[in-house]
Amino acid sequence: MLAKAIRDEAAAYVEEHADERDEYGHRLVARNGYKKQRAIESIFATVRLRHRRTKGSGSRSACFAMIFKLVQSASKRWRRLTGHALITDVIHGVQFKDGIRQNVA
């Protein structure tokens, strides 16, 4: 009896706020599990959003560990910048024009 009353109250609240939408046109108030399946467009393919909600994203330290591992993996394929020895000159304010150092008199 109490569960039915809670379900009815939740349904009334969702129905009352059904016309409120965000800037993308999605409803601001929706019941979990009752929202329609959405398609997310990417440059590779259309991805169907099937989950009711995302699983926990983990802690802050787990997020930083994941980012560290991704950057560490990507760094294996990085190449050295052409003219890497001149980076310190650029930092110290030396002027270059078309890749040639300009002597300021």
In round numbers, the mean pLDDT is 76
Largest sheet: 2 strands, antiparallel
Euclidean distance between termini CA atoms: 89 Å
Sum up the overall morphology in one term: elongated
Which SSEs are present, and which pair or pack?
Layout: H1 2-16, E1 38-41, E2 46-49, H2 60-75, H3 87-91, E3 96-97, E4 100-101
Structure description:
The chain is of the alpha+beta class and 105 residues long. It has 3 helices and 4 strands. The protein has a two-stranded antiparallel ribbon.
Short key terms for the protein model shown above:
105 residues, alpha+beta, 2 domains, two-stranded antiparallel sheet, 3 helices, 4 strands, 11% strand
In short:
This protein is an alpha+beta fold and 105 residues long.
